[in-house]
Design a protein that fits this description.
By secondary structure, this protein is an alpha/beta fold. The protein has three helices and ten strands. The structure holds guanosine-5'-monophosphate (5GP) and magnesium ion.
């Protein structure tokens, strides 16, 4: 049996193995290549959680692309606050660019939905949304998601870039909060 991990006060159990993640990352990269291989898109990864996924996705995409980051936060502990704040803004001019938003997880959708008007104001040529994880039952906004790695139930997860109050990002696999019985 694989091991549970304790982070702060909570116990998490293994959920998605790194090999499974890597297989999906490759599939998403292949799908992106079909649409963007001659377009030099810019990957816009949303910090902090997406840094691991963005690094793997970028290296799985063997066509020209740029990578940039913005920092938006909506979470405290294990729940969304519903309020999105920008902590590091955009540096690039995105006018006429194909922009691919790279997220770790879309939960309520608040983060992306709130950010889209800001992004659209730059008049990019196109906006696509790629997220490693999504929780369809938690979604509160009409969002178009172009590529999703895994649809998961509405349970808190950590690892592969995702944290619980700052810790757990370094775990290679994804772990799910263990139910207290
Ligand atoms: P949303 O704005 O869609 O509700 O939430 C998006 C952000 O909340 C994600 O980018 C992520 O940072 C955080 N988040 C949502 N669900 C989870 C989760 O299950 N685990 C962790 N660690 N972060 C989450
Ligand atoms: Mg995030």
């Amino acid at each position: 049996m694989s091991k549970t991990v304790k982070i702060h006060d909570l116990v998490f159990e293994p959920y998605i193995k790194n090999v499974t993640i890597q297989k999906r990352v490759k599939e998403i990269a292949d799908a992106l290549a079909k649409d963007f291989s001659d377009k030099k898109p810019i990957f816009l990864a949303i910090l902090n959680g997406s840094f691991v996924f963005a690094a793997d996705l970028a290296r799985a995409c063997n066509f020209d692309h740029e990578v940039s980051f913005i920092k938006l936060t909506s979470y405290e502990g294990t729940t969304s606050t519903g309020k999105v704040t920008t902590q590091i803004g955009l540096q690039e001019d995105l006018t006429d660019r194909d922009v691919i938003i790279v997220e770790d997880i879309i939960d309520t959708g608040t983060t992306i939905y709130t950010f889209l008007p800001t992004l659209k104001a730059y008049n990019p040529k196109s906006i696509s949304v790629v997220s490693l994880l999504s929780k369809p039952s938690a979604l509160k906004y009409p969002l178009t998601m172009n590529h999703i790695g895994f649809e998961i139930p509405n349970k808190f997860v950590v690892g592969y870039g995702l944290d619980y109050n700052g810790l757990g990002r370094n775990l290679k696999d994804i772990y799910q909060l263990k139910e207290v019985k």
